[in-house]
Structure to design on (192 residues):
């Protein structure tokens, strides 16, 4: 896990090293923190968030990164092993959004779940904001469900929508090693 995380955080380390040597840095401040969102026998899900404040710029530039580590295989988690292939998910009428590149049926279904569970007002972060970019939602596992974050619309949409795992049942492969997460509450084994 340490070598995986070291590889994932190399960009930040290289940027800091360049700044310390006087390259690519004209002053300012950089802040970042990592949070363990979920750790179980199969998954380590981390989020890294922070900001960079450059002189002469009125607002800091924020950044966000979701890292999902497959504890069974020892590398990046492949969401294709968790979700059904997009062509196996029933197509839904996309109305006016058919004219926009909204990605595949999986992305569309996740965007609809985002809208259902985000708790945001429609005028702030509704269909007109989310559905045209259904393919750009960031996904990561959290204790209470799959987190879906609209990074492109963080100002309007804010915190991620947490979709309870049981709500994902129809989108998850039956042969997924993580199927137990959608069959039980919060990934806890059912008591018999």
């Amino acid at each position: 896990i340490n070598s995986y995380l070291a590889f994932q955080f190399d960009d930040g380390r290289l940027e800091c090293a360049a700044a310390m040597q006087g390259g690519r840095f004209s002053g300012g401040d950089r802040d970042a923190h990592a949070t363990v969102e979920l750790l179980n026998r199969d998954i380590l899900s981390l989020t890294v968030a922070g900001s960079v404040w450059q002189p002469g710029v009125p607002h800091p530039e924020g950044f966000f990164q979701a890292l999902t580590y497959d504890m069974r295989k020892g590398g990046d988690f492949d969401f294709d092993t968790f979700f059904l292939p997009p062509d196996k998910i029933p197509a839904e009428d996309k109305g006016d959004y058919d004219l926009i590149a909204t990605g595949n049926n999986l992305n569309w279904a996740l965007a609809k779940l985002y809208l259902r569970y985000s708790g945001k007002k429609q005028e702030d972060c509704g269909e007109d904001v989310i559905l045209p970019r259904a393919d750009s939602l960031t996904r990561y596992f959290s204790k209470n469900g799959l987190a879906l974050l609209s990074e492109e619309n963080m100002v309007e949409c804010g915190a991620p929508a947490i979709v309870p795992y049981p709500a994902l049942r129809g989108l998850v492969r039956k042969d997924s090693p993580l199927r137990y997460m959608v069959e039980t509450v919060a990934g806890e084994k059912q008591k018999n």
Remarks:
- Strands lie at 29-39, 43-53, 61-70, 75-76, 138-142, 145-149, 161-163.
- The longest strand covers residues 29-39.
